[in-house]
## 1
Amino acid sequence: MRLLLHICCAPDATTAYKRLSGSGEVVGYFFNPNVQPYEEYLKRRQALEKLSSIWNFDVFYPPYDPDEWFKTVRGLEDLPEGSMRCKACIAFRLRKSALFAKENGFDAFATSLTTSPHKDVNFTNDIGTKLAKKIGTTYIPSAFRKNNGFLESVNYCKSLGIYRQNYCGCVFSLPKVKV
Ligand code: SF4
């Protein structure tokens, strides 16, 4: 099986990649225009480049273009993390991943988002399955954080020297600076 793994960040990709790679060839897809500022996007991309080079797997890096992402979450900017804004953001990234998987002949796609303890696993799997059906591909549901998956990702990052970010990604999730 040839599987496309939507990778939200290198830390979450560690557990996801390890758990999926026994099922066939896993190729990464780093589609995250939700990450701001651009310097942070580059930092996360470089972390993934480091991981994929150590573990020897390929990753696609589509161009960074946050405009469409900002349109997707328009009107939802002030909502908290875990709200409709995050659902729109996740659906946006999974839709592009499903399209890419379909257009490039992958057997299925999955996402590393479910390594994170902060993401809604049920929503992520439901929307991934619906999008796959609509687009004509297959989504592999996951809950990579289970069975110590998140802890594993922390340990991989420590041992490999992989950068771990301290906020989800968008400008609305940036830690507030106390004045
Ligand atoms: S907090 Fe994270 S999941 Fe939610 S909208 Fe921002 S980047 Fe997307």
## 2
Amino acid sequence: MGLFTKFLNLFKSGDAKEREANVEEYEDLFLESDFGSSLSYHLSELLLKKAKEDKVKDASSIRNIIKDELSSLITSFDFEPQRGDLSVALLLGVNGSGKTTTAAKLGKLFKNKGYSVILGAADTFRAAASEQLVLHGERLSIPVVAPVNAGNPAAVVYDTLDAAASKKSELALIDTAGRLHTKDNLIKEMQKVDKIVNSRVDKEHYYKFLVLDATSGQNLFNQASVFTTSLGIDAIILTKLDSGSKGGAVIRISKELNLPIVYTCTGEGYDDIKKFNKDEFLENLLK
Ligand SMILES: Nc1nc2c(ncn2[C@@H]2O[C@H](COP(=O)(O)OP(=O)(O)OP(=O)(O)O)[C@@H](O)[C@H]2O)c(=O)[nH]1
Ligand SMILES: [Mg+2]
């Protein structure tokens, strides 16, 4: 159920005083939408203020007040890699968030735009991980650099950047592991990978995308803050918006961690990816 339907169910018309009392009940709806406690409190306080100004006449006015406020809190990111020289995008995130699938989707998207694309399978933790990316590469006719030895993502990154240089690739999409023996190990490995890319590619042509599964709810905030603090993230790719979750958790992430959103994904198919559209995202959340 979208938020607007919930607003409709909760809204009680009545005199101004009754409406003021009523809007205080909306905080729970925001919490249910994974907005987190401080944002939920902020929004319910905003509604109360508007109710006191007699600007809350019906569920639609609540919807508009909330939409405007949320719109001011989230930012979008435009990913337009340069042509004629290499850009690198590293796909980061916890296991199962959709990194490998998204690498393939982006591969197809940019190949279709005429970019020369290469994929790097730097998830060397599981043998099946590189096989998954190699298969995508075969289906999409995109070259994939796969690990020679298990357990050495840094080597795959070197090899991918070497291959990109010799093929004159314009976009290297590097898939990474979502799970190592411990979370600390994962972050340390990713920091090594990050160092290598940084030493080989200009900062402005190096992008770190954090892939977040919309169905993970409030857990997303912790994931995002760990990756942001230890690696620095340029933008979020939000996956699985087709699975019922509306991705409300990303608003707090965008606001508090200052992270824009670059793409949203709505399925397992190669074409189920599109540029983040703030208005569409909020319309869906507030349906
Ligand atoms: N419904 C839906 N499923 C998705 C989406 N993106 C990825 N998936 C599925 O989610 C599962 C995990 O996706 P992967 O791309 O393997 O995730 P990963 O982050 O690479 O996972 P690890 O390699 O284990 O770290 C797969 O079954 C994908 O098909 C999406 O936008 N919508
Ligand atoms: Mg993977």
